[in-house]
Specification:
Number of helices: 2
Shape: globular
Low-confidence stretches: none
Number of domains: 1
Structural class: alpha+beta
CATH architecture: 2-Layer Sandwich
Distance between the termini: 21 Å
Helix content: 10-25%
Length: 94
């Protein structure tokens, strides 16, 4: 089954890909940053993975437990990973 993927480029350079699959009742957001561990200078080895973990510290207004609880109430979860090429953040809800 083929799905139509739409590509939108914002004025700030951010590219957004959207795909609507009508028979699924879920929402998945994936934030992919094209800067993985291979882009790190030697003196900052591991910084991308460190930044990934900093994001999971929470915000000024909500700690990570509060954010996780709110996502859980929506039947959702979140995750992140660092690869050689990318830093990716995922949020899924049902």
């Amino acid at each position: 089954m083929k799905h139509k993927i739409e590509r939108t480029k914002l004025n700030n350079g951010l590219t957004i890909l959207t795909c609507s699959i009508s028979h699924l009742q879920t929402v998945t957001l994936s934030f992919l940053i094209k800067k993985g561990s291979r882009h790190e200078p030697a003196e900052l080895n591991g910084i991308t993975h460190f930044i990934e973990h900093l994001v999971f510290k929470g915000t000024k207004n909500k700690n990570m437990k509060q954010i996780a609880t709110e996502l859980d109430l929506l039947g959702g979860d979140f995750n992140a990973y660092t690869s050689y090429e990318n830093l990716t953040f995922l949020i899924r809800t049902i």
